[in-house]
Amino acid sequence: MTLPLKDIDRPLGLTDTAGRPRRRLPRWPSRKSAGTAFALLALIGASAAIALRDRPFERPPPAVAEAPAAAKPKADPQTPKAAAVAPQAKDSASIVHLGSGGEGAGNSVLVIHDPAAVGQNLRVAHLPDRALVEDGPDGLLPVRAADGRRPFDVYARPWSGARGARVALVIGGLAVSQTGTQDAIRKLPAEVTLGFAPQGNSITRWMQEARRKGHEIVLQLPLEPFDYPTVDPGRNTLTVEASPEENIDRLHWVLSRTTNYTGVMNYMGARFSGDAEALAPVMSDLGKRGLLYLDDGSSGRSQAEAQALKNGVPFAAADTAIDGVRERGEILKKLDELERTARAKGFALGTGSAFDVTIDAVTGWVNEAKKRGVEIVPVSALANDPERG
To answer: What's this model's pTM, rounded to 2 decimal places?
Structure first.
């Protein structure tokens, strides 16, 4: 009788299988099981890829495609008719033809819009949205889009939305001096809002340049001062003695000087803005077109805020003019006052003109203020909007 070997006496590599069930080698999985495993692995891989993205669910920016070149439209290069807009083929796209008035004349650009987006992509910010313009006797006029969008919304510069100290600065008088306008656009930080004088030259060209740089813009509206016409704001000034129809015609001339602006600001106008009867038809028209009204704060008798609220017009009022004294030290003092106001109540708004000393002072101050935690915002960010409550 042979006794079983103990484990310690058994030669290496040999096993005693007597009386033990034989182990079976693992079988290959079935096709169904393999498919399930591969699907599980694919799901895990896709989840990991999404998690590792910087912003996994952010919508990609709207695409901008260049269409074939088109013939130049016949238009005056000094009016926004130089930027003619073709009919929109679909709700999500529009073709914009750049005429002889702007850079890239004779080219057509197909712009793909995201209907859910608010604010305009800065890559195409110089191009008018075809849904926001209509033909007028002197050029293109701003209008609300059929879907409710307003120029005030679409042409507004984006900002953080934070509740910290916010300062808006509006520098007017652009397009009057070509050199001054070029310097203002080149030097001023993009957060500064620019105001264009309707009597200026090459407004559409400068508007396009400013928008490419990221600036929000407004048009200056000439209104009658008390000592008019000794002090004359310029061509097509709106006056108290003119009929409502005459003033609306003058307003439309101003509005047709260019495109892509969020609204208007008064230029002078202490007498006109203090007369509610004269101001009411103007505010009504601005409200229908979806435009902002900015009061420069120079007149304590202004009825602009009350009329803006009544007519659904987004409204903002300046706290101070920063360059009443054209000296760098005095301008910096005014800017520091704005910062103190903003820290006290959350926001402040200042206006100035495109003088060399103002541009230099504002440029340096803005760069330092941002380091101190002050956010420089466009004027639209500080507007009281009756439609939003």
So the answer is: 0.72
